[in-house]
Specification:
This protein is of the alpha+beta class and 370 residues long. Helices cover 56% and strands 14% of the residues. The radius of gyration is 26 Å and the shape is elongated. Residues 1-6 have low confidence and may be disordered.
Length: 370
């Protein structure tokens, strides 16, 4: 039998450890950050294999199954006989109070859930063709784990597939704005002079515009009939174009305070190029802050993409994202009758909170000697 002993970290190991190792040690002690990493790991795993996990594709719908409430998966029938996972059929009727059509379970019809069923074709990771889905239901039945929308489409499938857009646009957009912010802010702070003046004036012009009108102006330039992949690219560029300015100003201030340090002057005298001084000497001086900024910028990107799609400026049907799904939440009466259509909002809140908690843990870990 093996006994695992807790590793004892000596004082010398602590003070001789690298910055990354110290940050990692402190990060794993942050409970909310650990929980957030698990949540985000699950979210991104689901996003990668979304087409396999989703029982329906984006083009599948049933006009006879509009606005059905979430389906309950049963194991025992009404006579207490174990049948394995199954769902009942449904029948519709008029609500005597609201006069709206509503669906109720028809216990005379039983449809078993099956796994690894064939369905709409897709490509795993955009490369490997497949038509297998994780689960489905026998022909004639329906399974809507989170209900259906006003067109009879499975909200669960659209939510999962929409995560591919809503979780990857922020990553790509943040990466682009991160590079722009460091590059332009570093050039502005390191060289100064007329270069600094030009870059700062450009930043002031961009930040002077309100975000929503600027989104509308940029989105209006996107043709409405372009392919979904190109629309994805354009939205990413728009989001990146707006968000790099704040980081650029912070990087500029850091570079102004660091460019007169002795080690920077020594690198110049040694003949090190300006580019290497910026990348290898100045940027690592506050890399902890940059990592924290990166994680805290992603939630704002998620909200930004959701807002654009919610306003009809981003992704459009038949493509989907969390913002597209929330478009049906604009009507209060619609939400009052079909409250499950607000479920995408809960997913947005959880993902934003997870990134914020992770950023909070990284912020604490960035000062490992504290």
């Amino acid at each position: 039998m093996l006994f695992f002993k807790k590793k004892v970290v000596s004082e010398d190991d602590y003070y001789l450890a690298s910055q990354w190792k110290l940050m990692g040690r402190k990060l794993v002690k942050h409970k909310l950050a650990r929980a957030s990493m698990i949540v985000l790991g699950i979210f991104y795993f689901v996003a990668v294999f979304a087409n396999f996990i989703a029982p329906q594709g984006l083009t599948e719908y049933d006009s006879a199954a509009k606005n059905i409430k979430p389906t309950i998966v049963h194991l025992w029938d009404s006579e207490k006989h174990f049948r394995g996972p199954f769902v009942y059929g449904f029948s519709n009727r008029r609500n005597p109070e609201t006069f709206e059509r509503e669906f109720v379970e028809d216990k005379s019809k039983i449809y078993k859930l099956t796994f690894f069923v064939k369905g709409e074709s897709y490509k795993i990771l955009g490369i490997i063709p497949s038509s297998r889905h994780l689960f489905g239901v026998e022909e004639g039945g329906h399974v809507f784990l989170l209900g259906s929308d006003s067109m009879g489409r499975d909200l669960f499938s659209r939510l999962i597939i929409g995560s591919q857009v809503s979780l990857t646009i922020p990553l790509v957009g943040t990466a682009i704005s991160f590079i722009l912010g460091i590059l332009l802010g570093g050039i502005s702070g390191y060289f100064g002079g007329w270069i600094d003046m030009v870059i700062q004036r450009v930043i002031e012009v961009i930040t002077s515009f309100p975000s929503v009108p600027l989104w509308m102006a940029l989105s209006a330039a996107i043709p409405p009939d372009i392919p979904i992949v190109r629309m994805y690219l354009y939205i990413t560029i728009i989001m990146s174009f707006i968000t790099w300015t704040g980081l650029a100003r912070i990087v500029r201030g850091k570079f102004i305070s660091l460019r007169k340090e002795d080690y920077v002057m020594a690198a110049r005298l040694a003949g090190v190029s300006d580019f290497k001084i910026i990348i290898k000497h100045l940027v690592p001086g506050f890399i902890g802050y940059l990592i924290v900024n990166l994680t805290l910028e992603i939630p704002s990107m998620i909200i930004g993409e959701t807002s654009m799609s919610f306003l009809g400026l981003g992704m459009r049907s038949p493509a989907t994202s969390w913002g597209v799904l929330l478009q049906e939440a604009q009507d209060i009466s619609n939400i009052a009758l079909y409250p499950w259509k607000l479920i995408p909002l809960l997913v947005v809140i959880v993902s934003v909170l997870a990134f914020n908690f992770l950023g909070d843990g990284l912020r604490d870990a960035a000062d490992p000697y504290k």
